[in-house]
Write a structure and sequence with these properties.
Length: 125
């Protein structure tokens, strides 16, 4: 009897700890200075992203594989604007980044990626 409870408890822990694979449109929020995908683990194949810039500054979305290969790079997404992106993704770990760098009046460079605009998502089979 005790052994049965141990097995059930172990199965419950495994079920709770394995992240689910998201399907359907994946929302990606660009803000100052972070990227917030609605899922950290998504299914492979045709993936639809609904990207919104909820920040005060323009941003971009760059999607790159773990090899560094860029599979998508958006134009500038203005504050308050949204775009829809459809990609055919293979299983891998992908980096979502904003690659805007601006120079302030005092000469200081502000790199959006270095200021926190990078997030990782896993594309599962």
């Amino acid at each position: 009897m005790k052994r049965g409870f141990v097995v059930l408890a172990a199965l419950w822990v495994l079920a709770c700890s394995s992240p689910t694979v998201a399907t359907g449109p994946i929302a990606i929020e660009l803000d100052d200075f972070y990227i917030d995908p609605s899922a950290e683990r998504i299914g492979s194949g045709d993936v639809q992203f609904e990207v919104s810039n909820d920040g005060e500054f323009p941003h971009t979305l760059v999607v790159a594989r773990s090899t560094g290969e860029v599979v998508y790079a958006s134009d500038v997404v203005d504050p308050g604007a949204s775009i829809e992106v459809g990609l055919d993704l293979i299983p891998d770990t992908y980096q979502l980044t904003c690659r805007i760098v601006v120079q302030l009046e005092d000469g200081t460079l502000v790199d959006h990626y270095q200021n926190g605009m990078g997030e990782t998502v896993e594309v599962a089979p």
